[in-house]
């Protein structure tokens, strides 16, 4: 069935289709043509002459509610983070990205901010934050904080003022309030979490009022970035955190901030979350050109501070040649490379994706970032252990879904990580991946918190499975040391005990030690800042090999052993295989 609806489409039909069309999917045509696996078109990459830290940094994502709990209430917090910073420093990372910790009703785990310049009491105080940043800097770790500018919480004072003010008032101008079409919403946009992107308000006198736009949950109204007051307010917010010493920002959904004038219907409503398609106009809620002026202004602000403050955009923009526009020298320093996160883990797909990445980012002098897991996708130790498709198109694994092969998943995940860490650029790690932590795939529905689950009547289980609190010390209590009391806001599955950090620390061959060794080598050999070239004679449909600063990185995607040419000095590996072999789903680093 084609879900393509023209802008004149029947609105009742559109409303009926809402639950079906909200997946964040990349249309098939953006997948590489895998029949065409030739090394023709292979790109190389030269090291940048600029030595900015963010060009090569390994940045570790801390999801505050699940990292470490300092007060025993079962919710991770800032004191908990501070108490575990030593272990992050010993891992060998350069910086931490903190997911939101600002005051929030927590309808979307903090991505619904009700006050941008404070700390939610759930996580501590501003003093706790200051102590954390001082300790982090003392350990040589930089701190990036999450900024959520596309939408606020419905509890934010701006939205409350808008609700209590008449239509057409300056208060309503902070958001997108519109009249509906009779009893139907103003246009056909859908929420990324399922259902319509519009909610109708009730006036103080009980009559039905205007509709407001929310590309996510109804508790997350989208801000109107045409309004200079919104722009000025965010500039002050940036300065507030920069003055407190943060090293930069991860910016949430920047590609959604500017909307097409008049908020017209989405012509391709069946591809609600899709990227830019060559030859087609940008969807009216994504990638509007006017947004770039905002980031140029933000860049000026960051550049006016001492040290190299940096911002990374969560710009889900495809193809990468289009994403490159977001990292021109006067805009973002980095964007997440969702093309890589979404690539299927096979030689053809990774080959094309790496080529496209260097081609696109090199064209504007920006580093590529690389990422395999985050708080929105199935952890790669589970994703690669089954047929779950593209990372951002899948929504968790429920108890009734096919379960991943954990052994295969971990083997592939370790190899994917070592392959990726060999690439020049900046790497993002998601908390727990250094333990080889799998997704919680048997979480009972009664624990679920992700709005995706509720807005799709449970059809999409959502992202809770990758957000479960970390196991630190096996068996010390029910949450394996996540909190002092054993409490945890989401229960860990039994098996998490076996992945606890203390069981892996100092144990040769453990995933934790593999990460530590790889990060140290990456830094010692300056791979993040290196030059890249495919080693064509070793590549085929099951094997990818490249060189970076005199190192050969080789990965076997296939099912048979590969024999290596004689005489290469061993550096690192994801298995304990013999030196001259690369086993199925193994990555090796060797001296060229
Ligand atoms: C992207 C964040 O990563 C995700 O967790 C959140 O739900 C949406 N933006 C909405 O803010």
Poorly predicted residue ranges: 1-36
The helix-and-strand class reads alpha/beta
Helix proportion: 10-25%
Strand line-up in the sheet with most strands: 9-8-7-3-2-1-11-10
Largest sheet, if any? 8 strands, parallel
**Count of helical regions:** 16
Distance between the termini: 52 Å
**If you average the pLDDT, what whole number results?**
91
Strand content: 5-15%
Shape: globular
Are any ligands bound, and if so which?
Answer: 1-deoxynojirimycin
Alpha-carbon Rg, integer: 23 Å
Beta strand count: 18
Description:
By secondary structure, the protein is an alpha/beta fold. The chain has helices spanning about 10-15, 65, 80-85, 85-90, 125-140, 155-165, 230-245, 290-305, 320-325, 340, 345-360, 380-385, 405-420, 450-455, 500-505, 510-525; strands at about 60, 95-100, 140-145, 175-180, 200, 210-215, 250, 310-315, 335, 370, 425-430, 530-535, 545-550, 550-555, 560-565, 570-575, 580, 585-590. Helix 7 runs parallel beside helix 8 and helix 13 (about 405-420) packs parallel to helix 16 (about 510-525). Residues about 1-35 have low confidence and may be disordered. The structure holds 1-deoxynojirimycin (NOJ). The site of 1-deoxynojirimycin (NOJ) has 9 residues, from loops. 1-deoxynojirimycin binds near residues 252, 253 and 375.
